[in-house]
Amino acid sequence: MTIDSIHNGYVIDHIPAGSAMALYTHLGLEKLGCPVAMIMNAQSKRMGKKDIIKIDGDLDLSLDVVGYLAPGATVNVIRDGTLLEKRTLDLPEQLTGVIRCRNPRCITSTERDLPAAFRLTDREKRVYRCVYCEAKYEK
Amino acid sequence: MRHLINILDLTVPEIDALIRRADDIMARPEDYWDACAHKILATLFFEPSTRTRLSFESAMLSLGGQVLGFSEAASSSAAKGESVADTLAVVSGYADIIAMRHPKEGAPIVGASHSLVPVINAGDGGHYHPTQTLTDLLTIHHVKGSFNGLTIGLCGDLKFGRTVHSLIGAMSRYENIRFVLVSPEELKLPSFVKQEYIKDRGIEYIQSQDLESVLGDLDILYMTRVQRERFFSEEEYLRLRDSYILTPEKLKLARPDLAILHPLPRVNEISTEVDRDPRAVYFRQAHYGKFIRMALILMLLEEAAK
Questions:
Q1: Which of B22, B97, B116, B265 has the fewest CB atoms within 10 Å around its CB?
Q2: What is the predicted pLDDT for the residue at B249?
Q3: Where does residue B78 fall: left (phi above 0), alpha (psi -120 to 50 degrees), or beta otherwise?
Q4: Could you tell me the strand order of the sheet in which A94-96 lies?
Q5: pLDDT tens readout for residues B195-242
Q6: Is residue A63 part of a domain?
Q7: Sign of dihedral through CA atoms A125, A93, B120, B295?
Q8: Within-domain flag for A22
Q9: Is residue B253 pLDDT above 80, yes or no?
Q10: Which of A89-103, B70-84, B260-274 has the lowest mean pLDDT?
Q11: CA distances from B290 to B25, B55, B297 (A)
Q12: A107 with B127: Cβ contact below 8 A
């Protein structure tokens, strides 16, 4: 399998195996015109198996989405064929416009143009609570 | 801009200052007759309420101010589909301070972020009701003299009862508090309230489904109504409504210095015969609500003027 090296774009590495599809959807990668490669179940010394996404194109990558769906993933930013930045992402403290509050009594269920916003209240247990109604996010 | 969304937006010293101010207003109301002259309070009630709205309006009128507003969503622009953000952006240009009730939880946070003037949360769904809690605190201060060392029983709807959540949050900041949580299984206190305000603070508590067995331990009994509007199913509401009814018979088990509070309105959870018992303080409690709201309006207007 050959995947061309990236000139301008991102390599999202160390994605927990099986999470790449969800990341692909939430990042809206299907809407991009540029080449996107997904590698599933790649061998990893650290993780056993991992997923990798390579995006050969510029986009406003939401690090919150990556951090939330794939905590521990590394994002490599490639510019002009060289590695510009490498960041390991953890669960974000705040999450805006990524997940929806499922409490039917929450103001985000009716208010126009109000993105759902969550706050990380327990990092160990991965608990997010709605900023508005404080309901716990349940997948 | 200072708003009041959650009772915990106020520090303990600020609550003490509000209670001192309310006491002073009760003792010398004439000193405050013109304290808010030429100021306007807007009462935006997207959900009907008698007591809270009238209490706010009476508070502002007693301070020499004026009031405007609406008492249900149907008579407001919300019926035309206007957002909370837009309503507050507009109305805050017509008033100096806003008291807002909304059925959706978190609505006052949205309102406050679009308002030019202080916003007071007058109840948002099953979430918070900080001015009821201030009323409860003023009542406890008057009947018990202190907030420390009290065993507080909360009975009825502890799940959707926003006054319960706010009162637990406020009382958990005092010393040697003990909570007794009495509810049917379906209306138990939400786990996050229990975790944050009780467990994390190392406060002693017990949970029970049987009011009679714990009644004798209590300094305060905070009764609540099972609220029809919080249920999607009428059948479930009717099943849980009659879980706890306080009667003179049951009160024989209680201490002579118990104080019975209720945020009102009641339906049938306290028998009317209990009203004559000197331990029933819920009507006095409702009257205190006006004075603590006067103190709060003054505080927020003073801070906005700085």
A1: B265
A2: 95
A3: alpha
A4: A94-96, A117-122, A127-130
A5: 889 999 999 999 999 999 999 999 999 999 887 776 678 887 787 777
A6: yes
A7: positive
A8: yes
A9: yes
A10: B70-84
A11: 10, 5, 11
A12: no
Lowest mean pLDDT among A124-128, A135-139, B275-279: A135-139
Whether a cis peptide bond, with omega within 30° of 0, leads into B48 is no
Q: How confident is the model at residue B126 (pLDDT cuts 50, 70, 90)?
A: confident
Mean pLDDT of A35-41: 93
Q: Are B231 and B198 in contact (CB under 8 A)?
A: no
Read off the pLDDT band of A3 (50, 70, 90). Answer: low
Query: How near does any CA of chain B get to the CA of A124, in Å?
Result: 15
Do the Cβ atoms of B104 and A111 come within 8 Å? Answer: yes
- Using a CB–CB cut-off of 8 Å, the residues of A that contact B are 103, 105-114, 129-136
Same domain, A14 and A81: yes
Is residue B169 a contact partner of residue B129, using CB atoms and an 8 Å limit?
A: no
The residue segments making up the domain with residue B194 are 130-285
Taking one residue from A and the other from B, the number of pairs with CB-CB distance under 8 angstroms is 55
Both tokens of B282, joined, read 């819920």
Q: Are B274 and B248 in contact (CB under 8 A)?
A: yes
> Looking at the structure, do residues A18 and A41 belong to the same domain, yes or no?
yes
Sign of the Cα torsion B196, B232, B247, B54 reads positive
Counting residues of chain B whose pLDDT is more than 90, the rounded percentage is 79
d(CA B58, CA B90): 24
Q: Which of A105, A106, A111 lies at the smallest CB-CB distance from B85?
A: A111
> Residue A1 CB: number of other CB atoms within 10 A?
4
The shortest C-alpha distance from A74 to chain B (Å) reads 32
DSSP state of B200: T
